[in-house]
Design a protein that fits this description.
With 88 residues, this protein is an alpha/beta fold. It contains four helices and four strands; from the N terminus they run βαβαβααβ. Strands 1-2-3-4 form a four-stranded parallel beta sheet. Helix 2 links the parallel strand 2 and strand 3. It is globular.
Length: 88
């Protein structure tokens, strides 16, 4: 599980990508992204989420997004990500 907080924007995305890279070694285990404390996500952050999904899904893993404020739900709805990820 990864806990995301604050802003996942362009300036934070490089570090976040490095920090979240181990999640790609999921080997059939579910990947949980806890976005309860995430205030903002930019397209660079969405690409990170998509990259995790693209690696995890063929391995039989689910990518689950927990929490999230109204802004994040709106972004996921507008981008169609709510159809790609399991959102709790």
């Amino acid at each position: 599980m990864a806990i995301l907080e604050g802003r996942l924007d362009t300036s934070a995305s490089l570090e976040a990508q490095k920090d979240l890279a181990p999640l790609k070694d999921c080997d059939g285990r579910d990947v949980v992204l806890d976005c309860t404390g995430l205030e903002y996500i930019a397209s660079s952050g969405l690409r990170i989420f998509l990259g995790i999904l693209q690696v995890a899904k063929p391995k039989g893993s689910r990518v689950i997004i927990k929490g999230g404020n109204d802004y994040l739900r709106e972004v996921f709805t507008m981008t169609g990500f709510y159809k790609l990820f399991e959102i709790e």
